[in-house]
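>> received
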Amino acid sequence: MKKTIWRPLVLGVVSGLLAGIATVTGLSFLTPGITNNTIGFYMTLFLLAAALGGPLAGAIAPMLWVIIAALFGPPDVKAVITIPATFWSNMIAVGAVVALVGLAYRTIFERVKMPARLLVWAGIVIACYVIGLPSSLIPQNYLLGDPPSDILPAVLYSYQTYIPQAIFDILITSLVFMALPSSHTRPLWYEPIKALEQNDGIPDSMTRSKR
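>> returned
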């Protein structure tokens, strides 16, 4: 087992705890309407965890947040999250979609340099919402027994309510990437091919020098 597995594990747990604390302390709130979406800092933390910690951190953070919100969240948040259909749809769907963000960030990190990387990253965040919202809402509405005719309006409404959140997430995460040194924006969950080749070359060079 590589030592790097512990870095994304810790990052995912810390991000999930911070997101849970933000929700419990009232820094997240519900928007009224069809979907009752929770708006706050939690998604920003999920995205940063996925980008820097990879799929493992990206999956752990939202799953831990759902558990904390269901157990200790404010009454309005807790009332929605504790519904089994909402709980499991958020646990599985959001965790899976955010985990994919980690894979996408690794791809652009290897191929796109700053500051152009920020534009591609913004597209990844938007895609996360475009894919993630229906992935969570469709099974949720199905489990709740809502008529199929309600699914499309619910998805469209969720897109509208999450536009400010998506803009906020793109802005904050981009500022974090710009503020961090380049060495700290590298995904922590894998070793680049070049780095492995360099590491492999060190023992060989040392061996040759000894000879």
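>> The first helix runs from residue 6 to 24.
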